[in-house]
Design brief:
The chain has a 6-stranded mixed sheet with strand order 1-5-6-4-3-2. It is of the alpha+beta class. The longest helix is centred in the middle third of the chain and has 16 residues, at 37-52. The chain is globular. The two termini are 21 Å apart. The protein has one helix spanning 37-52, and strands at residues 2-7, 9-14, 21-25, 28-32, 57-62, 65-71. It has a single domain, classed as Beta Barrel (OB fold (Dihydrolipoamide Acetyltransferase, E2P)).
């Protein structure tokens, strides 16, 4: 488990597949957790909010997937 603190969301990517959303955070593509559709949707909303407002995020990443996100 790794926490990345005070990072920016520089880009978002998704396609037509179910719960397939990625964010460019801290210089790498990070897949948003997709065990539950709602989790993926909520991470996407938070990341878009952070990107649009140029806000910092703190994210917990496990196995390359975003498991938690805070927007400041």
């Amino acid at each position: 488990m790794a926490w990345l603190s005070s990072k920016k969301v520089s880009a978002l990517w998704s396609n037509h597949e179910r719960s397939n959303v990625w964010g460019w955070i801290d210089g790498a593509w990070r897949k948003f957790e997709d065990n539950h559709d709602d989790a993926c949707t909520n991470f996407t909303i938070l990341a878009a909010h952070a990107k649009d407002g140029n806000r910092n995020v703190d994210v917990r990443v496990e196995s390359g997937r975003v498991k938690e996100m805070y927007v400041w």
